[in-house]
Amino acid sequence: MEANREFRMWQERLKSRWREWDAQGKDDGDLLRGASLLEAVEWQQQRPVELSAEEQDFIRCSCEWKERERQERERQQQEKEKLQRRANQFLLGGFIVAVLVAGVAVWEGFRAAIGERNAEMRAKIATLDSRWVSGEESLNLQLDVIAVGKELKEASWAKFDSRLRVTNLLREMLMKWREYNSIGVAHFGDDALFCT
Fold this sequence. Notes:
two-stranded antiparallel ribbon, mainly alpha, 2 domains
């Protein structure tokens, strides 16, 4: 008896809400929500034959609206996640580009430093070469050529043409020394040593 009275009181509240919804042109804003909707679904399941077609339609529309809202929230969440993935991909792509640019910059800096060192080495070799071509045959020139040769041997960055030029310069000096030795005269700058 008490359950029946409780149902009738709820049904009167439902009819009042239905009339308001109907009077407002069946606006979604007047549908059942939250606890009111849960209570309506529960009564509908317990006493479906005691509800009018309008009341059942009102509950059905409220459930459909709730489902549309859930789907819309889900769609928005998926869209948000999709945008977040795109933003992450964009950031990752930007990071990769930045790393590549930094790598290229480091590589180019390294190449420039090697180029400078090679240019300095070529300048040293050119100076030694010009001293040799000008006729200088001193022991200091030979020691300078040997020192540059040692420096080139330890320099993994040195170009092949620099190594070759120093090797050829040493070879030319040794050949000249052999010529002097074969005729018995050795020159050290302005001094001459005669061998018998």
